[in-house]
Amino acid sequence: MPAKKVAALVMASTLVGVIGAGCGTAPSASHPPSSPTASGPVSITFMEAMSSGTLKTAMQSLVSQFEKSHKNMTVNLEVEPSYGVLKTKIEASVTAGQAPTIAQAYEDWAAGYANSGAIVPLNSYVNGSHGITAQEKSQIWPGVWADQFLPDGKIWMWPFNKSDFVMYYNKTWLKKANLPVPTTWAQFASDAQAVTSSSANTWGVSIDPGSSSGAANGTYFFVALIRAYGGHLMKKGKPTFDTAASRAALSYVVHMYQNGSMKFGTNYPGQTAMGAGHGLFDLSTIASYYYNEQAIGGKFAMGVASFPKGPSGEGNVMQGTNIVMFSSASTLQKNAAWTFMKWLSEPAQTAYWATHTGYLPVTRAALPLMTTYYNTHPYQKIAADSLANARPTPPVAGMAEAIGALSNAIQAATIAHQSVSHALATAQSQAIQDLASAK
Amino acid sequence: MDSTDRRRPAAYLYLAPAGLVFAVFTLIPAFYVLYISLFNWNFLNSAQSTFVGLKNYGHLLGSSQFWHSLLISLYFAAGTVPVGLFLALGIALALMNPFTGRGFVRLAVFSPYVTPVVATSIVWIWIFNPQFGLLNGLLHMVHLPELGWLQSQRWAMPGVILYTLWHSLGFDVIIFMAGLSTISADLREAARIDGANRWQEFWSVTWPLLTPTTLFVLIITTIGSLQAFTQFFTMTAGGPLSATTTTSYWLYELAFLFYRTGPAAALAVLLFVIIATLTALQMWLAQKRAYYQ
C-alpha cells in the first residue's frame, strides 16, 4: 500500500476514534425512589476540599463519628487541595464516568451539573419518609434554605459549609480618632473619609473589585451594597444590574474612590492595608478572621461588626458550598449518601463543624449548643446573625461570567471615569449576553 | 533492496515511542479540538452536544471581544518581541567581551529565565503594588508621580511587558551569545584590517552572519508572546477592564472559567492559524535576507 494511503488511513481511523470518543457514554439522570432507605453494607465517596488544619481534622472526625453510628456505611473522603482543583477533579471524573457519590459544589457549578444530568434533585430524599420534618426545615436559615434550589424550583443541593461577610476595623484607631463603629453605609463612608490623609498615607478601605474572570471580595461588597439599597441581581429570570438601587450603590463606591478613602488592589488588599495600619476597615468573610489577626500581628486591636445597613437594611452575600449527589451512583449509595448528608446537617454535627472550623451553623437549632463557643468567639455570633440577611448569588449558568461584568462596571465608573449609568448599562447588556450564551 | 531500505523499519521502530507520545498528547488532542470547535459542546455530557458547523467561528469573528483580545495580544507582542530582541542582542554583544565578573553578570542575566513564572510574578505584583510597592517608592523618591501599575488601564500592560522582558531576556541572550560564538574571528579581523570601525564591523560582518540566529529568536519569541498566559493569569487576570485580556487569556476564560467549550476550541484553532501564518510570514521574509556561512 502506498505511504500516502497508509497515512490517510491512519488519519481517518484517528478521526473516527476521536469522534467515537466524543460520542461516549453520558451520565444518565436516574430518578431516585420516592421513599429512599439506607441499607448496607455500602461505601460512598465524598469529594471535598477541606484539606488543611482544623477543616481536615474536623471533617475526618465527623466521618469517623458517622461510621461508628452507621456500622453498615463507609464514607471515603477524596480530599482536594483547593476549590479550583475540586472543580476540575469533579468534572474530569464525571466526564470519565467515575463521578464520586457526593461532592461539595457552589451554586453555579450545581446549575451546570444539573443541566448536564450529572447530579440528581434531592426533593424525594428531603420530602420522603427518611427526609426532614417541617420543624427541622424551619430551623434552617431562610437564605441557606433558598440556596439549595435551582431556578427550576427543585432542591439540588444540601447545605454544608457557609460563611458571610462582616466588617473588620482597627478598633484602636477608631477609638483614637473618636469615630463611631459604623452601623450605616453613610457612617462608614464618613469614617473612611475622616481618616484619609495623603500626607499620612492612610485611607478608609481597600477592595479587590474583581475582573471579567470573576468576582472578588470587592465585587461581593458591591452586591451587598446593591441589596442594602433595595436592589437584586436578578428578577423574573433576568439580570437587573442597571436599576436605581445599583446606580445608588455604584455612585457610593465612585464617591469613596474619588475622595481617596477607597483604594483598589488584588490578593486581599483590605487585609494588607488594615494589617499595615494604612487602612481603617476590611470588608471580608468571617473566614478571614484568623488571617486578619495574623496580618495585624498584635499591633492593634481588631473589631468585628456586621455589614452596615443601607436604606433597605443589611445586604449580605452568602459564601461557601453545598453538597450535590451524582446521578451515576447506585440507589444504595444514594440512600447512604442522603443518610450522611442529613446526619451532617443535624444540630449536634452542625455545632461541632461550626465550632471546630469557624464556618457558620446552617441551622438555628445548633445555636443553643454553641453558647459557650459564642461567649469566647463573639465575632462568630455576629456573622451567624448576619446569615438572616445573606443571600447567595443567583444559581444560574453564566452567572459567574455576568458577575464579571459587574466587576468591570465598578472599574469602568472609577478608574475609567465612565458615568455610573453608562457603566451599569454596559454591565446589564453584557450580563444578558452571558446568561444567554451559557444556556 | 539497499542497506538504507533494510534499516528503514528499525528506524521507524526507534521513532515509534516518541511518535506515539506526540500523537497521544499533541496530534490527537489537536484534531479533537478542531472537532469540538464545530459543536455546541457539553463537556460534562457529550451526548447533549449539538453540531453547529462553523457557527462558533462566525460568532468569534463577529465579536468585538475577539478583535479586542487580538489587539491586546499584538500590543504585548510588539512590546516584548522587538524590544526583547534588540536588548538581548546588545547584552549578548556586551557579554562576549572579557571583563571582570563576566561570569557573574552572565548568571545574573540568565537566572530569571529559570525561575518559575508563577512565583516571580507574585513577587512582581508586590513590586507593582500602588500603595506599598518598590517601583512607586522609587518614583516617590525622585519626586515623579506614582502610577497605578497593574490597577491602571494604561499601565497594566507595560507592567506585564516589563516583567516578561525581565523573565525571558536571559534565554534570548544565551541564543545570541551562541550565535556570536559561531562567527569566525577571522572575518572580523579581516574587516578591521580593511579599515572598518566597530560599527561597520558589526553592521557588515556580525549582523548579516547573525541573521539565522535572529530569525530563530524572532520566531520563538513571537510564538511565545502570542501564547503567553501565566503572567496574565497571576498578575492581572486579564484586567483591569480587559486591558490585558490577550487571546490566550480569553481562551482560558472561555474554556476553563465559563465552560463555553465549543467557542473556546474555535478560538484555539483561530489562534493556531494566526500564529502559523505569522511564523510562515516571518520565515519567508527573513529567509530572503538570512545569510548562512
Automatic annotation (TrEMBL), chain B:
<protein>
    <recommendedName>
        <fullName>ABC transmembrane type-1 domain-containing protein</fullName>
    </recommendedName>
</protein>
<dbReference type="InterPro" id="IPR051393">
    <property type="entry name" value="ABC_transporter_permease"/>
</dbReference>
<feature type="transmembrane region" description="Helical">
    <location>
        <begin position="162"/>
        <end position="185"/>
    </location>
</feature>
<feature type="transmembrane region" description="Helical">
    <location>
        <begin position="107"/>
        <end position="127"/>
    </location>
</feature>
<feature type="transmembrane region" description="Helical">
    <location>
        <begin position="205"/>
        <end position="225"/>
    </location>
</feature>
<feature type="transmembrane region" description="Helical">
    <location>
        <begin position="264"/>
        <end position="285"/>
    </location>
</feature>
<keyword id="KW-1003">Cell membrane</keyword>
<dbReference type="Pfam" id="PF00528">
    <property type="entry name" value="BPD_transp_1"/>
</dbReference>
<comment type="similarity">
    <text>Belongs to the binding-protein-dependent transport system permease family.</text>
</comment>
<keyword id="KW-1133">Transmembrane helix</keyword>
<dbReference type="GO" id="GO:0055085">
    <property type="term" value="P:transmembrane transport"/>
</dbReference>
<feature type="transmembrane region" description="Helical">
    <location>
        <begin position="12"/>
        <end position="35"/>
    </location>
</feature>
<dbReference type="InterPro" id="IPR000515">
    <property type="entry name" value="MetI-like"/>
</dbReference>
<keyword id="KW-0813">Transport</keyword>
<feature type="transmembrane region" description="Helical">
    <location>
        <begin position="70"/>
        <end position="95"/>
    </location>
</feature>
<dbReference type="InterPro" id="IPR035906">
    <property type="entry name" value="MetI-like_sf"/>
</dbReference>
<keyword id="KW-0812">Transmembrane</keyword>
<keyword id="KW-0472">Membrane</keyword>
<dbReference type="GO" id="GO:0005886">
    <property type="term" value="C:plasma membrane"/>
</dbReference>
<feature type="domain" description="ABC transmembrane type-1">
    <location>
        <begin position="70"/>
        <end position="282"/>
    </location>
</feature>
